[in-house]
Design brief:
The chain is α/β, with parallel strands linked by helices. The protein has a single domain, classed as 3-Layer(aba) Sandwich (Glutaredoxin), CATH 3.40.30.10. The protein has helices spanning 9-13, 34-37, 53-68, 84-90, 117-130; strands at 26-28, 42-48, 73-79, 97-101, 107-112. The chain has a five-stranded mixed sheet. α3 (53-68) links the parallel β2 and β3 (73-79). The N and C termini lie far apart (33 Å).
Length: 135
């Protein structure tokens, strides 16, 4: 069993400039924060690298969806060069790769390759359909 740990707020403050800002709806995920960031909510994580052209073409689609927001869905971004532990744990073989995690941290779905806005919207619709309904 993997033990989850709390995120150290001090380490988040010292994040490099390449990470999303604190005002971004996208959470920066790295090896140190991976377990916490992918638990407690449905989380869609984009695994990417700065030199990857398909990753750069998908980034605006991902950012626009995060900005628009989806109730109950959290968006995360993981630079594979800075997070070899998460990449190894999940056996990420190509980028960009999107991984959807359930509230318990389990992987629910994985898609490799850059998606267009309509494809990504359908994926998010599938995630949203899994959310518990209020009675």
């Amino acid at each position: 069993m993997v033990r989850r740990r709390q995120i150290d707020p001090a380490s988040a403050e010292n994040a490099p400039a390449s990470r999303p800002t604190t005002h971004s709806p996208i959470r920066w995920i790295d090896d140190a924060t991976f377990m916490d960031a992918t638990a407690g909510a449905y989380t869609v994580v984009d695994f990417w690298a700065p030199w990857c052209a398909p990753c750069r073409s998908f980034a605006p689609v991902f950012e626009a969806a995060a900005e628009a927001g989806r109730p109950g869905v959290v968006f995360g971004s993981c630079n594979v060069e800075e997070s070899p532990g998460a990449v190894t744990l999940l056996q990420i073989q190509s980028i960009p790769t999107l991984v959807v995690f359930g509230p318990d941290g389990s992987e629910l779905r994985r898609v490799s390759g850059a998606l267009g806005p309509a494809q990504f919207s359908r994926l998010l619709d599938d995630v949203h359909a899994r959310l518990p309904r209020s009675r």
